[in-house]
Amino acid sequence: MRRTVFNEDHEAFRDTIRAFIEAEVVPVYDEWFAAGQAPREFYYKLGELGVFGINVPEEFGGAGLDTHKFEAVLYEETARAGVTFGGSGVHVLLALPYLKMLATDEQKKRYLEKFVSGEEMWALAMTEPGTGSDVAGMKTTAKLSEDGTHYVLNGAKTFITGGVHADRVIVCARTSAPREDDRRFGISLFAVDTKSEGYSIGRKLDKLGLRTSDTAELAFVDVKVPVEDLLGEENKGFGYLGHNLASERWGIAFGAYAQAKAAVRFAKQYVQERTVFGKPVAAFQNTKFELAACQAEVDAAEAVADRALEALDAGELTAAEAASAKLFTTEVAHRVIDKCLQLHGGYGFMNEYPIARLYADNRVNRIYGGTSEVMKMIIAKDMGL
Q: Is 321 assigned a catalytic role?
C-alpha cells in the first residue's frame, strides 16, 4: 500500500539517518549493550546532525518546524537497524513539549540552544516508588523559601529514562496539598539542574529490555531550585502533564509499530537464509502463513500509527484516540515479534540476534506511558461506559 504520510524531505532525512546509524551506531552497539547505556558523547553527534532541533524555533538554533514526522522516521530507522539511540528519545518526545508550552522567553533563551546542541540533555521525572500510574499520589515536595528566591525540593523518583546522563530534569513535585475536591491540585513542574547540591542519582536500573537507555532512580535532599526554574504556573502541573500525554502515547504507539515492521524484516531475512531438512525455512507452508499473518497485522498497525501521526500534527489527536492507537499497536507488536522470534528457533533466544533484543525492548510498551489496562479505561470512558 502506498503511504502518504511522508514527503521528499522526510525521505531525505531517512537516508541521512540510515547512513548515520550504519556508520556511528551499528559498529559499536554491542559495546553500548554491554555497558547498559549509550555514551554521553553520542548525544553531541545527534545534536550536530540536527536531530534535537527539528521542532525548536530558529531563533534558538533549531529548524523551526512543527511536526512529529521526522521523529516517526527515527522510530522506523532505529527499529529497522535493531538499535536504539540510548535515552535520547525522552529529550525530544517528552521534555521539549513542556519547554515549548511553558517556558518563558527568558527561560527559552537559557535552555533551548543547549538543548539543540546536546550540551544539556533533558529528562522527565514523574514516576515515584509506590505511585506508578497514580501521578496525583506523588510525595515529592517543593516548598518556597521564606525569602521567595527558591524552592526546596525533597523526595525521590524512579524509572527515569535518561536519568543518568541528564543535565536538567523536569521534576514534578507538590507545592501545595491536594484539595478535598481535587487531589490533582498542587503539583508544579521545575527544570532542575542535576549539578545542584542535594541532587543525587541512585541505581542505574537493570532492565529486561532497552539496555542501551540509561534509566535511573533519583533522590532530592533539600535541593535549592531557583524560582526562575519553575515551569508554568504553580499548582497547575497535573494539567500540563495531561496535555502532553497524547503525544507521548503516540510516540510509544508509533515506535511499537516500527518494531513490529522490523521484526517481520528480520524474520523474513532469517528464514530465507536458514536451511532445515535440506531446504530454506521459508519454503515451509507454516513459515509463509505465519509471516503473511504478521505482515497483515503490521499493515493495519501502520495505518493506525499513520492516522494518529496526522491527527497529532494537526493538533487534533484526542486522549482516547492516542490511547486506542497505543493499545492496538503495542498489542500487535507483542504478537508479531513473538511469532517472528519463534521462526528464528533457538537463535531467536540469543542476544546477538536483533530479534531477541527487539523482543525484550518491546515488552515495556504495554506498561509505560500508561498500561494497556489504563488505555482501556480511557477508551471505555470515551465510549460513555
A: no
